[in-house]
Specification:
The chain has one domain: Methane Monooxygenase Hydroxylase, Chain G, domain 1. The chain is built from eight helices and no strands. It has helices at about 1-10, 15-40, 50-75, 80-105, 120-140, 145-170, 175-205, 220. Helix 2 runs antiparallel to helix 3 and helix 3 (about 50-75) runs antiparallel to helix 4. The longest helix is centred in the first third of the chain and has 29 residues, at about 15-40.
């Protein structure tokens, strides 16, 4: 279905432009995520202004909404579902930008943030999320439902794993309290980014009423 929606979206000037803007939003959100993770995990100074990138994502979201609204005001019966799907997707992208910014802002919690110790497990998880992000961007362009389903299957257990991690971190005696706080917050933000990537993929794989939900196959439900 999403491939059909892509074909519809590309027919009209305004919504086609909105689709291009959405791809730009995805690129910027991926960039801000990677920069923020490296800033906390590897103590790398971001090559770009995190807050400026976040403002650019927000500006693109408003721009897309205006284009979709203008398109629907001219053609109220045409491309309604496609426009709603696109609007749902950009909300998740904007939220990813916010949570990525929150990761960067963990540095502000400590005067000597260079000494924060990030768990190796979370470093690896962040790499998995970045790879999933790259695959999500490709899948959004192709509209491949099977690929979107596979990405959702990859994301869902990762979210659950973050919940288990938070419970386990309290048992790790080698963590200082300040490091434990930083890692718990980092874990929560990674989980939320993962959840919104899953939401984007659900917009590709699921019917409109199930966007934002992980739809199990009969085999998985058993």
């Amino acid at each position: 279905m999403f491939r059909q929606l892509l074909a519809i979206l590309k027919k009209g000037d305004l919504v086609s432009q909105a689709l291009q803007d959405t791809n730009e939003m995805l690129d910027k959100a991926h960039n801000i995520f990677d920069l923020s993770v490296r800033s906390i995990a590897d103590k790398e100074k971001p090559e770009q202004d995190i807050y400026q990138l976040d403002r650019e994502i927000n500006a693109l979201e408003k721009k897309i909404r205006r284009k979709v609204l203008e398109h629907l005001s001219i053609n109220p019966q045409q491309d309604l579902i496609a426009s709603l799907v696109l609007t749902s997707v950009i909300i998740s992208i904007e939220r990813i930008g916010d949570y990525s910014k929150n990761i960067y802002e963990l540095l502000d919690l400590y005067e000597d943030s260079d000494k924060i110790r990030i768990d190796e497990k979370l470093r690896k998880d962040a790499q998995i999320i970045s790879a999933t992000f790259a695959d999500t961007k490709k899948t959004f362009k192709t509209g491949d439902r099977n690929e979107a389903l596979e990405l959702m299957k990859r994301a869902n257990p990762l979210k659950k794993d973050f919940d288990l991690y938070i419970g386990e971190i309290a048992k790790k005696k080698y963590f200082k309290p300040r490091d434990a706080v930083a890692n718990v917050l980092f874990s929560r933000f990674l989980k939320r980014v993962t959840a919104h990537l899953e939401n984007i993929c659900s917009g590709i794989a699921n019917p409109f009423e199930l966007i934002g939900f992980y739809k199990q196959t009969d085999e998985e439900a058993d």
